[in-house]
């Protein structure tokens, strides 16, 4: 969906589902996934697929599970080596 | 509880200007901001972008202006807390926030809230599909992460930001597939001709005309007065369809950017119980704040676009106005810096007049009445316009009662993305003004906070 303007710079590797994603240090998880061509981040509790809408932490449509913690806003979390990011299906589990 | 002289919430132009002014005068200032670097949305990533020739060429003078502001802020001695989120502010000026995975509460005699703006939600059928974002989101990806669309996007809506984004995309080599404008009234500027001649306005006007010229040179298809907009697609967005020039048009693309202007971010001011007035011309709520940035709650000040949209240049003046008011409170000298305050207020007023010109040319969308029943208005809870209309017909009195009817506004975004639409639709059905209908009651926590973060609360 998106491409990078510049090449180079330190990179970071993390996992999305069973895929390894190479990101640029400092970018958000949402940006890294969009640059990797991923366009479904979650399914809403009522079913439909969703992806980032606002990118500034307002819409909560980029919610993913990061290292086992659900309902994290992918646009508000910076990539870090070894993160395990998963799609969130439906409402978050409580507890 | 730790105490500081002033807590500034938000490191955009207003927050940075306020903090710089105060820290340069020896005050202990903490600036809390959710981003990794200062700048706010408008100057997101400005330090890096000004230093990169590829990005500076696309972003123009804005990155340079932002970088200069940030340099002054960083040199001022203000304490800057990035990646930190304020989730509660009380009338007693206790500020609770989360940073580094822990929560803490600070005490202060003065809070300056500079929480900025958000894009007005654009509820059209299909706007929840992957592949539909806001124009601001595309800018965020460009400024913050150096990302541009892989394929030409379609820009849909109204407002100067849409033109700016189109120009930036052209400069980045990804000219939009089309611009579909909903409501533009360039002739409305005629009534404000005296305003156009003001020096500050002239600069903005030239910039606007240059942007339109660039758009024409790039031969971007430009549709005007488009209505009945819908995004089509099943699993993701595939096309936009609309009526323009008397017939229905359809443009296929993989990315669509919606925009209908920006409105004050009101979660924080609402949570404090401050009265909000509905500005009919700008079609948005804003907290009741006086010309010195003071709210009805002593020691709680507001600055910049979170009060009334007037843009980044205006926000710097508003920030310094709030800083002078803060100094007056801290020194108990109500006449401090009177000349400087008057000068800043004069400059802020000039920018506010230009904004009124922008509001005239880009009127608020009159499309709520035409919003089809199947349109999702609450993205979190998937509540449609038709469901809200049915609830109002069944006696639902206002936005807060709509929550118990439909759960509208009760999802993770806490009503940020449906509040304006819910108030607008209810006002239309009840033939009342939006100001009279009011808004959701907003309560802390204003940001998600985990029980673990609360349990680790540092309260020393």
From TrEMBL, chain A:
Q: Which GO terms describe its molecular function?
A: iron-sulfur cluster binding; oxidoreductase activity
Membrane-crossing residue ranges in chain numbering: none
Keywords on record? Oxidoreductase
- Which part of the chain is the 2Fe-2S ferredoxin-type domain? 10-91
Its domain of life reads Bacteria
Looking up SUPFAM superfamilies in the UniProt record yields: 2Fe-2S ferredoxin-like (SSF54292)
Q: What is the protein's given name? A: (2Fe-2S)-binding protein
Q: Which organism is it from?
A: Acuticoccus mangrovi
Automatic annotation (TrEMBL), chain B:
BFD-like [2Fe-2S]-binding domain mapped to chain residues: 376-428
Give any Pfam family that matches. Pyr_redox_2
Which GO MF terms are attached to this record?
oxidoreductase activity
Ranges of residues in domain FAD/NAD(P)-binding: 5-318
For this UniProt record, give its keywords in alphabetical order, as a comma-separated list: Oxidoreductase
- Kindly give the PANTHER family that the UniProt entry links to this protein: ANAEROBIC GLYCEROL-3-PHOSPHATE DEHYDROGENASE SUBUNIT B
Task: Tell me the protein's name.
Answer: FAD-dependent oxidoreductase
Recorded source organism is Acuticoccus mangrovi
State the taxonomy lineage. Bacteria, Pseudomonadati, Pseudomonadota, Alphaproteobacteria, Hyphomicrobiales
């Amino acid at each position: 969906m998106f491409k990078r303007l510049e090449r180079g710079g330190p990179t970071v590797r993390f996992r999305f589902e069973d895929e390894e994603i190479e990101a640029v240090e400092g970018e958000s998880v949402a940006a890294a996934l969009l640059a990797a061509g991923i366009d479904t981040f979650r399914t809403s509790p009522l079913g439909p697929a969703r992806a980032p809408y606002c990118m500034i932490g307002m819409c909560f449509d980029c919610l993913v599970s990061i290292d086992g913690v659900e309902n994290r806003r992918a646009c508000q979390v910076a990539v870090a080596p070894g993160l395990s990011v998963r799609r969130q299906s439906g409402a978050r589990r409580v507890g | 509880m730790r105490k500081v002289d002033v807590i500034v919430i938000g490191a955009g132009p207003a927050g940075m200007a306020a903090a710089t002014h105060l820290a340069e005068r020896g005050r202990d200032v903490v600036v809390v901001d959710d981003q990794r670097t200062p700048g706010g949305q408008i100057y997101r990533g400005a330090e890096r972008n000004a230093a990169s020739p590829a990005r500076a060429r696309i972003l123009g003078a804005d990155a340079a202006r932002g970088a200069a502001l940030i340099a002054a802020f960083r040199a001022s001695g203000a304490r800057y807390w990035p990646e930190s989120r304020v989730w509660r502010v009380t009338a007693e000026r206790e500020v609770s926030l989360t940073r580094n995975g822990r929560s803490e509460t600070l005490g202060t005699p003065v809070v300056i809230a500079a929480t900025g703006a958000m894009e007005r939600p654009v509820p059209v059928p299909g706007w929840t599909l992957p592949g539909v974002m806001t124009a601001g989101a595309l800018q965020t990806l460009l400024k913050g992460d150096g990302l541009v669309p892989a394929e030409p996007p379609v820009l849909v809506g109204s407002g100067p930001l849409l033109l700016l984004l189109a120009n930036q995309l052209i400069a980045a080599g990804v000219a939009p597939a089309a611009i579909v404008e909903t409501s533009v009234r360039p002739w409305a500027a005629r009534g404000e001709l005296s305003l156009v001649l003001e020096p500050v306005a002239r600069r903005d006007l030239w910039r606007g005309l240059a942007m339109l010229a660039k758009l024409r040179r790039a031969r971007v298809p430009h549709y005007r007065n488009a209505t009945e907009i819908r995004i089509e697609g099943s699993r993701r967005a595939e096309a936009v369809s609309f009526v323009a020039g008397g017939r229905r048009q359809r443009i296929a693309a993989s990315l669509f950017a919606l925009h209908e202007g920006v409105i004050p971010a009101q979660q924080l001011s609402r949570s404090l119980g401050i009265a909000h007035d509905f500005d009919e011309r700008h079609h948005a709520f804003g907290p009741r704040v006086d010309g010195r940035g003071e709210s009805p709650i002593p020691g709680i000040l507001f600055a910049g676009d979170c009060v009334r949209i007037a843009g980044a240049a205006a926000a710097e003046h508003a920030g310094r106005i709030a800083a002078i008011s803060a100094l007056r409170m801290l020194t108990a000298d109500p006449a401090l810096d009177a000349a400087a305050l008057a000068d800043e207020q004069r400059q802020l007023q000039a920018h506010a007049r230009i904004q009124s010109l922008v509001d005239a040319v880009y009127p608020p969308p009159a499309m709520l009445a035409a919003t089809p029943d199947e349109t999702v208005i609450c993205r979190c809870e998937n509540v449609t316009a038709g469901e809200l209309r049915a609830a109002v017909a069944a006696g639902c009195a206002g936005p807060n009662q709509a929550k118990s009817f439909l759960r509208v506004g009760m999802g993770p975004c806490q009503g940020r993305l449906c509040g304006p639409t819910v108030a607008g639709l209810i006002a239309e059905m009840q033939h009342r003004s939006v100001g009279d209908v009011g808004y959701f009651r907003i309560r802390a926590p204003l940001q998600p906070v985990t029980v673990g973060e609360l349990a680790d609360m540092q309260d020393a």
